[in-house]
Amino acid sequence: MFSRRAKSAELSEPVDDGYGKGRPTPKRREAEAERRARVKGPRDPKARSKYEREKRMKDRRLQHEGLMRGDDRYLPARDSGPRRRFIRDWIDSRFTAAEMFLPSAIVILVLGLVGASQSAQAASTAIWLLVVVLIIVDTFIWSIGLRRLLRTRFPDDPHKGDIRYAMLRALLIRRLRTPKPQVKRGQKP
Q1: How far apart are CA 108 and CA 125, in angstroms?
Q2: Which range among 3-17, 72-86, 115-129 has the greatest average pLDDT?
Q3: Of 99, 69, 71, nearest to 166 (Cα)?
């Protein structure tokens, strides 16, 4: 039990204790050299620039994926926080007339340019006015409901710009929204 053989047998076998070590602690000189190599990267200028470029691309990719997921660590200040998350989910869970603004603007523009006749241009102008009025009325109606919900959900956190943030999100086509919608249409936020 207290003999030298028992100790040497225990020390010679690497033991995996669940912490992932399973090896002896490196010497200080080796640890410092390894740390310097990780910090500095390659010494060759071409290899170093390639290493730094790959590192930047990896960081950007991680940041973009986090942004698209809606991870608060990667969101800009205007999008972060539980209040803005609720607004995003609330807008994404419903269909708004403002969402059809961009597609209708493209159609109206094409009608106005292609149709050389006076009647086609008049029709495009009428459609344009109808779309704008529909968007204004719809936005007015849902903004009242959203204000009421925000007052009940977040009574201690008055915040300016919430309705403007919601309108800007509602104007975008669902596929183009950043961060990507986390709720489906009709689902409660």
Answers
A1: 8
A2: 72-86
A3: 99
